[in-house]
Design a protein that fits this description.
2 copies of one chain form a homodimer. Chain A is of the alpha+beta class. In chain A, the strands form 5 sheets. In chain A, strands 16, 17, 18, 19, 20, 21, 23 and 25 form an 8-stranded antiparallel β-sheet that branches. A 6-stranded mixed β-sheet of chain A has the order 1-6-7-11-14-13. Chain A is globular and about 80 Å long. Chains A and B meet through helix 12, helix 14, helix 15, strand 16 and strand 17 of A and helix 12, helix 14, helix 15, strand 16 and strand 17 of B.
Chain lengths: 702, 702
């Protein structure tokens, strides 16, 4: 591993995003998602299922207060099992002092505070900050004196804390708490929540570790691995780094820790826990498996640790897992997790379009993973995938009004199938208001709010632009402050302008590293860069020289492009996708009428681009030609059409003698994939992968 | 309903099957399936999971003996819940006197005795008969004095008998018992088992009925409906007919009976019990729904009852349900049940090829249904479907050596997917030895053993040939005995010969009704029928006249034919099937190499037929032309192929820029669908539905 290739994140308070695409999303998050989620957390949205998140913290807080008051006289409750989700209507728990919701419900607060923190950085807001402080007070009041902070066990009985790492989510909740706390500290300088997270981390460090007297377990749902690295980076406390390293190293070693919690059946398979990525020690893992969100969260933590420890064996595993995802298990939208069974990766090349899981959170996790790989080595392949996921499988998770969300992002959706076929019941034909298991909306909020973190990294004298997100970024070179100003037309056009200004208006020597997007297939056009030494490495154009306010323009050609999957992807046989720049396109009944599955696209006829505002944001839609069956040709039954003569009734209308279809031309309108299902709740169908392979001679009216 | 159109089954002892196809299958059943199953029933097959079927009868028999001995002093066990399947290793039941196996395990005996009975008719065998008598003694010894005979409750506690009709299978076990008992009585004249079945029926009749003091329930798993009709037909006891009628009439009425057993949740849907076909009163049912086997068993009972009671409203429902199946929910193989979730019908036109359930038993039930419709009105559409199911989705359930079985009959099978994709784990790439839930093998055995029952029916002066099964059938006309002699080349050629001889060698006036198969697309060639009055009605050729030993030859043209599904079947878009006569063809890797999903078939190039013995039976395979991708064309990555120049690593090898494929001709070999997976356990892939729609201009080497 070459440490010289490392680069660092830019602190968000050095970034001011002003982007034609992302600023609007950030504003949606600020104005819609964050306030709405706060109401959700407090069970104040009548049409949504109660979250019980703040309720649980309040209950735990009252218990802690009582405990402080009573001292030794306080009687701890002994453990009551409440199941994975517990509700007021469950038998035997009618109490206002009960824990409700999912076992991981605490994490909803943490995701919210993280999103709120990012919003406060970009857009100071005393009212939001006051609300956040109030929430933090409630949360911190629930913390036990030993640092423990998970309301499920605080309320239901601490005697069973840390005894079901496999299925319960204490370490997951801790991870989100730490991430939220770090963000809020970075946003406001206030350290109350950070200290609480550290105290919880200290307790976990006392409880888990290599020392045989300690617990040898690790999280059932990963995130603590990367959260502890963040906590280490902000506090400098090495124990946190070592704790993360311990979790990573122990994972998947034999005897399986989870077997201790749940002794396996006699005929249990020798290799198991794929779902938890705990089937093998992480350094031996080569194939991305199991629950997709958990997987990419783990891989992100592994990449962090590889960089922190300069651990080549860990980086090698990360590389293998990255390749496994992007070369065998990723949809063209950047969606991952092909099966709803376990919300998991399927086997290589199994990428069904209609039963895809492709959870918004999983693609977000893929961005986390990509960003961490980029920090180790700036190679555009990571940033290309990051961009692909962002503009497709991630942003499709949110409606254009910021009020409804997809958990699952299929590449084909037929509302009738979603309604009637239990195998597709996870696929929703329209975005939903909120979820009981509300991971995706707040995950989207925290990602969008920190988009600058993924867009750029830096080394002493180098500034990397991985994603062309417009804005101003402050950087210090040799003690001098410089501002990098970026304008970007992406994703709708490939025009990008970058300038570097110094505060003292004198030239500064540095390198700008511009990613050459994978989708830019013709040579890019560069202007204003004549004075700089140009070189290309790993997909980045390096411009080395003295900067003094010059504007460098790069135009990346962005023309519609037809993409085909590798022939091993059976579900895409005879089909293609259409992209323009980083944006994947799809077709809706709203534009193209019924029976979309009968249409064949004719890529050879070219595409016409059209700007539109009909989705409430600027967007480019495509027109192209396709073929559709000329009419419902009256067909011959398999009984052979002698029916009148032979006076017999028909055998079946389901099958008939094949006659090559007669086709007619049809104009098709394709819209960006991420904008599908944004035009009301009308019945529509959405394919992203189109049939092709009909040629001219088959068309009757060419 | 026109009673004059009714026809009757031929008793099996009047039929002697001598058929080029079916005789061999009957011999397999006699020599392999029946003896093997007897060993299974007695837990004497080391490599198969124990059945516990006879074990349970023996345990119950010992209890009854003890009860008889002790009289009033005998203490009945009170009910112990044992779950849907109970095993010796379950906690708390280590006793030799426990019930083991599925709750419906008793029915395995009944299916076996039915198959044994048919075998004894066709092939008397004192040893088998002695074994059967011995088995009957064991079973009858288990019967309670009040007639009750279900070992699950006899052993586990009678106090809960008939309290879980929805999920437990007492009435199902009764139904199979009655069917087995009727068959054994017809085969041997011995009535011990028949009397036991009648006593159980009497008890059920005392327990269930319109009288408000009686139970208003009905079977959770149907079969008793048709079994009671059989019992009525053989005993003349009208109460049995009325009991069946009661079950049919009560089904689906509100309040739902099953709600009484299991009070529904507050938010339960208003219409439910689709799975059990109990969502609506049966006369209001128009769409085939729920568990496919249960459904067709019910519909068969309904058709029986429609005929018995001349009930037009019931017949109308049967017609609607028949049409729902064959016009919206049936695979080209006659397979039904498109989803493994509930082993059930999916919604109309949802017929996925690779995740099909298409249980062997469901297609067998479709044959039951078809035969009952035929008895009401001889229309060839019913017999066509019967034949389609028999030669494809049913007979595929058994290996050519009679030793292994498919439960699920998919139209596409990829062993890797079966192994790695939980969504396809129900699809087995090779036939299995035996199943814990062993419905399909014995169901096949009893169907094959009684094939003559489905092949022919009669009226006073008319003899119907629905299926061309070769053999001699005795019939009485005006007190005179005539023998109908049939020779048939079906399914491999369309040549059929029929002659009618009288014992007294004098002419007899009668009508032969020959089904004109749906697959016979050119006019059939008829010879030797000049002396008869010919007419065609509902797909049957009626030959009316004086018969005196003439041989009538009919040749039904049988050429390969390409079939397409209705365009509403999305899963078959751009695909076709190939049939020859009633046989559907498929393609295996064993003949055609890997990557079958990349091959396009070229039906316009025609087919070459070839006789083969390689499967151990005579068969016809087809050769035809297809196209395959010329080679793995080196493709351009989505990064645009500038990789060497730009020194960057590849983004993904999963997607690349589309270029129309170059194809080359390839000879394809298609084999009968039902013969797939018969050539060893080598890894292969099997599609039945082929890609088409590539025309000449796309082929490079035409």
């Amino acid at each position: 591993m070459d440490e010289k290739s490392f680069s660092r994140e830019i602190e968000l308070n050095r970034i001011c995003v002003k982007d034609g695409f992302w600023t609007e999303k950030m504003e949606l998050v600020r104005k819609e998602v964050i306030p709405y989620q706060w109401e959700i957390l407090n069970d104040r949205v009548p049409e949504a299922a109660p979250s019980y998140c703040m309720h649980n913290f309040r209950v735990a807080g009252r218990m802690m207060e009582e405990k402080r008051k009573k001292g030794e006289a306080y009687k701890e409750p002994t453990y009551t099992f409440r199941g994975f989700e517990s509700l007021p209507e469950d038998p035997g728990h009618p109490d206002e002092n009960s824990f409700y919701g999912f076992v991981f419900q605490d994490s909803d607060f943490s995701k919210w505070i993280e999103a709120a923190a990012y919003s406060l950085i970009a857009h100071p807001d005393p009212e939001l900050e006051a609300t956040a402080d109030e929430a933090i007070d409630i949360v911190c009041a629930a913390q036990r004196e030993n640092g423990y902070l998970d309301t499920y066990y605080i309320i239901n009985g601490m005697d069973k804390a840390f005894t079901n790492l496999r299925d319960h989510h204490e370490l997951y909740c801790f991870g989100h708490l730490a991430e939220g706390a770090v963000a809020y500290y970075q946003a406001t300088g206030k350290d109350k929540l950070l200290k609480a997270a550290c105290r919880f981390a200290d307790l976990i460090d006392d409880t888990f570790g290599k020392d045989k007297k300690k617990c040898q377990g690790y999280p059932g749902h990963e995130i603590a691995e990367m959260a502890l690295v963040k906590l280490y980076e902000v506090t400098g406390e090495k124990r946190y780094l070592e704790l993360s390293s311990f979790f990573i190293d122990m994972r998947g070693t034999k005897p399986y820790y989870f077997d201790k919690e749940f002794p396996p059946a006699k005929d249990a398979p020798k290799i198991r826990y794929h779902y938890h990525q705990a089937h093998l020690p992480v350094r031996q893992q080569k194939e991305a498996t199991g629950h997709a969100v958990r997987a990419v969260y783990l891989y992100s933590g592994m990449a962090d640790m590889a960089r922190m420890k300069k651990d080549d064996s860990l980086l090698k595993a990360c590389e293998a897992l990255w390749n496994s995802i992007v070369n065998e298990k990723m949809y063209i939208t950047g969606g991952i997790g092909a099966t709803r069974l376990g919300e998991a990766f399927s086997y290589p090349y199994d990428l069904p379009n209609d039963t895809a899981y492709a959870e918004t959170c999983a693609s977000i996790g893929l961005v986390f993973f990509a960003q961490r790989m980029l920090k180790i080595k700036p190679e555009s392949r990571f940033a290309d995938i990051m961009e692909l996921a962002l503009f497709n499988g991630i942003i499709s998770g949110m409606s254009t009004d910021g009020k409804a969300f997809f958990y699952v992002n299929p590449l084909e959706s037929d509302p009738e199938a979603c309604r009637l076929d239990e195998r597709k019941s996870h696929v929703k034909p329209v975005r939903q208001k909120w979820f009981g298991c509300a991971c995706c909306p707040p995950n989207l909020a925290r990602l969008i709010g920190s988009i600058g973190r993924y867009a750029y990294t830096e080394r002493e004298d180098t500034f990397f632009i991985h994603l062309y997100v417009g804005g101003d970024i402050r950087k210090t070179i040799d003690g001098r402050e410089v501002t990098i100003h970026i304008e970007s037309g992406i994703p709708w056009n490939g025009l990008v302008r970058v300038s570097v200004k110094t505060a003292d208006e004198k030239p500064v020597h540095m390198k700008l590293a511009l990613r050459i997007p994978a989708w830019c297939r013709e040579q890019m056009r560069l202007e204003g860069a004549e004075a700089f030494t140009q070189s290309v490495k790993d997909g980045y154009l390096y411009l080395d020289g003295d900067y003094n306010g010059e504007t460098i323009s790069a135009e990346f050609s962005m023309s519609p492009c037809v993409i085909e999957a590798k022939d091993t992807v059976k579900e895409d046989e005879g089909k293609v996708a259409v992209m323009r720049g980083p944006v994947v396109y799809c077709m809706e009944e709203a534009d193209n009428g019924k029976n979309l599955h009968r249409i064949r696209i004719r890529p050879e006829k070219g595409f016409r681009e059209e700007k539109t505002e009909e989705f409430g944001i600027p967007a480019v839609v495509l027109e192209c030609y396709g073929l559709q069956p000329q009419q419902n040709t009256p067909f011959r039954m398999i009984s052979g059409g002698r029916d009148e003569k032979s006076q017999r009734t028909m055998v079946t209308s389901l099958y008939h003698i094949y006659e090559p279809e007669k086709y007619e031309n049809k104009k098709l309108r394709l819209i960006p994939y991420f904008l599908w299902a944004n035009r009301g709740e009308n019945i529509f169908s959405m394919p992203t992968i189109f049939y092709v392979l009909i040629n001219d001679c088959m068309a009757s009216s060419t």
